[in-house]
Amino acid sequence: MLTGENPTWSGRPTELVKKLGLEIQPNTLTQRLNVNAGRLQTEYNIRYENTRTHSGRVIKLVLSEETA
């Protein structure tokens, strides 16, 4: 999903659940990502951002340059 050629993904939690083929509720996924954001950064060099807009929650994943 994240590669050197495509280092950023942004979308709704529901989209991420579908893209990853997970059988988990989108809210549960965002809770787990919030808890494990430091681990994502440390172990996989992926920065996790979670914002809330008027139209709903948006997740952004960014692969840092060290692994790209």
What order do the strands of the largest sheet run in, or round the barrel if closed?
1-3-2
Provide mean pLDDT, rounded: 90
Q: What's the total count of β strands?
A: 3
Q: How many individual helices?
A: 3
* Beta-strand share of residues: 25-35%
Summarize the structure in short.
With 68 residues, the chain is an alpha+beta fold.
Give your account of this protein's structure.
Helices cover 38% and strands 29% of the residues. With 68 residues, it is an alpha+beta fold. It has one domain. It has a 3-stranded antiparallel sheet with strand order 1-3-2. A hairpin with a 2-residue loop joins strand 2 and strand 3. Helix 1 packs across helix 2. The longest helix is centred in the middle third of the chain and has 10 residues. The protein is globular, with a radius of gyration of 12 Å.
Secondary-structure blueprint:
Layout (H helix, E strand, L loop, with lengths): L7 E4 L1 H8 L5 H10 L1 H8 L1 E8 L2 E8 L5
Antiparallel strand pairs: 1-3, 2-3
Notable characteristics:
single chain, 68 residues, alpha+beta, globular
